[in-house]
């Protein structure tokens, strides 16, 4: 799948996310910062957003649109919404499986518009995987679902990015025991190769430098703390270097994310979910962005969940969504420049 290029200035498509979470609130607050974010529209229930604005006293006019072409004229004055009514009235903090199909349809619509070249990219609000599973959703998460929507040729790779760090977990939404069991040289090479290519096309880095984290403490300490680093990770680094990719490792994970160490690479390839996400969220929880590499369309997301515990209270912060909007627009610009 090779989507047509979106026209210059095309808006971003923002999905509904879990209706009982904080997605509606943060998207309204992101629009209030419209002088600092690229134009976007939301695929959501317009009445739901109006209720949130009224309940939380967020002064945001909501306007329904019939297509992306209407967004540029409306965006300075109101938040543009592709109205997709929800079957059940959402209650903050209490996900309802009755709304699961609408959540999925919002994602599918956004991807379709991006693949048609009508939207510059997709920015997804957080979903509740548990609520979707109850309605028959079979994918581990957003990343895997987006890969399926993109087609057989796509190999989605999750990157988490902030101003000071980019990390890519090779294994994602599985238990730590499963991550160790399924880790192999080929998976590391594939994730790192896609990452290197995306750093060039999506981030404008001519010769990306990759750090490959070890799996075990001290990267195995010469076999004293496990053999996986010598038998699985080191051969992956050798293969990457044979392909012309500037990679080093396996690097001891406990020192890889120190300030001085971070100056030596453009992205860190990590062996499992928390090895990647803990340092990034510690460095910049509010500014972290989830980016899916390896897709024919641009996709970013806030690097946080549905926050059911604060949904409806007015305490949600929009910083990560704002960062996701900005990054999506920047990636779209880099891709456009790479095509010329």
> What's the total count of β strands?
12
The CATH homologous superfamily of the largest domain is called: Isopropylmalate Dehydrogenase
Low-confidence stretches: none
CATH architecture of the largest domain: 3-Layer(aba) Sandwich
Q: In one word, what is the shape?
A: globular
Number of helical regions: 12
Structural class: alpha/beta
CATH top level assignment of the largest domain: Alpha Beta
Note down, in words, how this protein is organized.
There is one protein chain. The chain has 340 residues and is α/β, with parallel strands linked by helices. The protein folds into two domains: 201 residues, Isopropylmalate Dehydrogenase; 138 residues, Isopropylmalate Dehydrogenase (3-Layer(aba) Sandwich). The protein has twelve helices and twelve strands. The protein has a twelve-stranded mixed β-sheet with strand order 3-4-2-1-5-12-11-6-7-10-8-9, sandwiched between helices.
